[in-house]
Amino acid sequence: MHELYEMELASAEAALMSDTELVRNAGYFARVGNDWIRHFLICGGEPLRLPKHSSSQLRSFFQANQFRTGYATHGLFPYRGKFHPQMIKGLLNAMGLRPGETVLDPMMGSGTVLIEARLMGIKSVGLDASPFCRFMVQAKLDALTVPLKPLQTACLESRLVFEHFTKRAGQARAGSKARYHIPAGPADGAFRDGPSPFTYDPSFGALPGGCEVAAVYRFLLLAYLDSAGYSERSERKAPFDQFHSILERYYFVAEKIQNVLGGFESEMAEASALQGDARNLPLEDGSVEGVLFSPPYSFAIDYLENDSFHLGYLGADLESLRKQMVGLRGRSLREKFDLYRQDMAQVMAECARVLRRGRFCTVVVGTNNNQLSKILGTSPADVTGIDQLISDWAGCCGLQQVRKLSRQIRGMSNTLRTEYIVFLQKC
Ligand SMILES: C[S@@+](CC[C@H](N)C(=O)[O-])C[C@H]1O[C@@H](n2cnc3c(N)ncnc32)[C@H](O)[C@@H]1O
Predict the structure, then answer these.
(1) How far is the CA of 205 from the CAs of 7, 199, 202, 216, 392, in angstroms?
(2) Backbone angles phi, psi at 365, to 5 degrees
(3) Is 145 helix (H, G, I), strand (E, B) or coil?
(4) Within 47-96, where are the H helices?
(5) Degrees (nearest 5) of the Cα angle 96, 129, 250?
(6) Distance CA 219, CA 224 (A)
(7) Calculated CA dihedral for residues 335, 338, 344, 347, nearest 10 degrees
(8) How far is it, in rounded angstroms, from Cα 174 to Cα 184?
(9) DSSP 160-203
(10) To test ligand 1's pocket by mutation, which of 326, 365, 390, 409 has the most ligand atoms within 8 angstroms of CB?
């Protein structure tokens, strides 16, 4: 433990949970009496297996953060702005969520909340406007239980698997800004009007033995898209070699978590990953016992630009998607910020509506007051940060701020150094 917010979460766990609950779900303890905590067992052993060419900086980041990030299936696919999974475990506990209850993440991104909740026996619903997020989260949830044998075959026959996806997705051009050549066929995505990436379709053609199971297919496809992203950014490795080493790493991740979970599979909870709009949630009033999420930090990251190849591959229409994405609507920065405020006020109202009375909505958010001051034409000291705006909008719809913690952002390529954890309670 290095930070105050971690001490706070650890004391909340100690105060709110019985010994049995701690052994099963605590995030900030190693053992209770003679019993090892499950989180400690999940994170133990060899950390995430990184590609051989990974920098020493990346290696030491994962070593230093072995209990914080990169464990279970969280390390599959490098999604920008993803949560810190150990913190999510601590927050779910501090929010008083217990097995059998339901948590919502209305902007799930790479699905950190859903994966943690599933491991902890807490039911979850997640939404994201991006169809790629829905696909990625489903693949990462599946990876907790995906059959390993066909994956072994796929590793041995990785050339065939690579050729299969290359035929459908196009050949990666290493280091090319031109991205990919999408092969003849539907110009804007292999899956538009065609078979869904969520189920294996025989017209995909033959894959090595046993790889036609939908969960296996999704796992392999995620590894392929991940490797294509690397190839796009760097010429260091040929695309096939990149795919092969990522597939081996993915296999290692699935095997490792399944070894620890062996015998506990039935304790995992259902998780439902949906594509949808957080401004208009498809849920009943008062139907969830917790809401936990992180919105885009105004317009720091263009998620569509980041994932354009993957979205194109899944047949998404980027222009109509842009109209739904919080933080991406509008032309000038000023207009973008106005629409961001309007959209986020609506998201907070929806969160308040679906949350059960007395329970908590927790928002993790950063604010770049320097950037905002330029847009608003004021000094940074006069800017109301996004964390405060969230609290103000929440207050208008019956969510009262009960606590706010700050934490340092440790990721390697972040421009923001601090983010806030805003705890809101439904009156
Ligand atoms: C900061 S990221 C969330 C990261 C996530 N906590 C994780 O662990 O990966 C914010 C997400 O909000 C999504 N988003 C933007 N507008 C949305 C909308 N209207 N409805 C649902 N999701 C939206 C983006 O696609 C992005 O994945």
Answers:
(1) 53, 13, 6, 15, 54
(2) -150, 145
(3) coil
(4) 56-64, 85-94
(5) 75
(6) 9
(7) -80
(8) 20
(9) HHHHHHHHHH-EE-TT-TT-EEPPSSSTT-TTTTS--TTS--GG
(10) 326
Report residues whose beta carbon is within 6 angstroms of any ligand 1 atom. Answer: 79, 81-83, 107, 109-110, 112, 127-130, 133, 277-279, 294-296, 303, 324-326
- Report the interhelical angle of 131-142 vs 214-233 (nearest 10°): 120
Q: How far is the CA of 160 from the centre of ligand 1 (A)?
A: 34
Atom of ligand 1 nearest to the CA of 109: 27
pLDDT per 10-residue tile (average), the chain, 427 residues: 86 98 96 94 73 68 75 90 92 98 98 98 97 95 95 94 81 54 40 55 65 85 88 78 94 94 90 97 98 88 81 81 93 93 98 98 93 90 95 98 90 69 97
Per-residue exposure over 82-102, b if at least 16 CB sit within 10 Å of its own CB, e if not: bbbbbbbbbbbbbbebbeebb
Query: Based on the number of CB atoms within 10 Å of its own CB, is 356 exposed (0-12), middle (13-18) or buried (19 or more)?
Result: middle
* Cα end-to-end distance, the chain, whole Å: 33
CA angle 425, 123, 132 (to 5 degrees): 100
Q: Which atom of ligand 1 is nearest to the CA of 108?
A: 5
Ligand 1 center from residue 146 Cα (angstroms): 26
Backbone angles phi, psi at 19, to 5 degrees: -60, -40
